[in-house]
Amino acid sequence: MTPPPTMTMPAAMERPTFNSLLQGLPVLGRAGEGSVRISSLVTDSRRIIPGSLFFALPGLRANGHAFLDDAIARGAAAIISGEPVAGLPAVAAAQVADPRRVLAEVARRFFAHPEAALQLVGVTGTNGKTTISTLLRHLLQSDGSQWGLVGTVRYHLGRRSIPSYKTTPESADLAAFFRQMADAGCAGACLEVSSHALHQERVHGFHFRVAAFTNLTRDHVDYHGDLASYLDAKTALFDGRNGSVPDVCVVNVDDPAGRVLAEACRRRGTVITFGLAADADIRATDLALDTGGAVFTVRHEGRACIFKSTLPGGYNVSNVLCALAMAAALGRDPLALAPALASFPGVPGRMERVEAGQAFPVFVDYAHTDDALRNALRMLRDITPGRVLCVYGCGGDRDRGKRPAMTKAVADLAHLAWATADNPRKESLDRIFADMREGLGPLPAVEFVTDRRDAIGRALAAAKSGDCVVIAGKGHETTQEFADTVVPFDDRQVVREILELRRGAQS
User: Fold this and answer.
1) Same domain as 165, residue 81
2) What is the DSSP letter of 82?
3) pLDDT digits (tens, 9 = 90+) for 243-290
4) Which runs of E-coded beta strand occur in 328-463?
5) Where among 63, 81, 110 does a domain terminate?
């Protein structure tokens, strides 16, 4: 994905000097004139404009230090790197031990600490982050206040909304977003906080009024190495390693890792738990689920209220409970939010229903882990009178270990299934399919189809009245990534096109 344009300081703000941005921070070495004025903070040399401060961050595939010559040629006024900076021509420079942590501190200074004017609420965990953060914003704005949103689908910045390029952006972009939100009069910001962001300290030093944990299942093991390290990255949001302990921790006690986390958080401060468990502070009972959504009772502090949601499935009830618990942590009465929940339209690409006059429901969902697939398929089996048909894929250049598990989930729970391309990137589909086939039993229940449009077409052709079709993996995404190109591809649009063509052929 293409990053957003370079974010500069608002015109009304005086440009700080390089020295003032580094004042009091641990610096290992300096070079050049420190009085130079800084116009923007940049982590990608392609985004540099004259006057930029370039942070040469270490990465998985490349070290930003290798791009110093390019940064200087493009007009960078100053450089911060984790490596020696002596001898750089015509720019101010500093060597620091932890460039990412310094970036986070400098970003807050550069944009005049916009987070101080906002209540920051963050949600982490494997599944549910996008739905919870989007729903929470909807609930909080029901009183007329304005809230920002930073997440996987879009960034809502107060006066404008832009497509997301990363679930949790770099700290420089976050600080710029917070400045726009604060200037627009937002009361706070709802954030999805990814494990990558926590490990790379993108939110370091930003104090969270509320932080929530949803659940833990296998994901991103290709990056973190193992599940324990993945969980450790998540818990950094709660234990102070992020720079401070949240004022309130909201935790799912239906999840085993969440129950352990809740106990640890209680030793540090205030905790609100949620779930179906009888000991949860905010819990749901009397669930009634169908393809149109859910009806359930929410219980809190000896009171109860019936809630209606358009979000289907038991896992979405858990997402609702998390959002209600976070609202409670901000001082809202969670039971008074029932009308606001009823008006929530849902999240693009999260069990999003696609209608094109067909006789069966079609859902597009972002499920891209075995746990998410199992949850989605179990839910659909419970509420579908006929068969559940599934189209899914596994991303290339990502965790190979989850591919057999995803196929096993589909083979176990779908009546018919088609495996296909899902952003293969630079990896061959043959290798991806070979990994996926390891999850099949002796009687294969999955058809492998190279072209994603063809796979979707086969599922729609096989579906009958009473069945349902779920197209999993890409959700809200509107492109398909191959080795040397990115092509337009929106599962929702493809479904409509196929169904409309079929309807035209039958008329």
Assistant:
1) no
2) S
3) 899 999 999 999 999 999 999 999 989 999 999 999 999 999 999 988
4) 352-354, 362-365, 388-393, 416-420, 446-448
5) 110
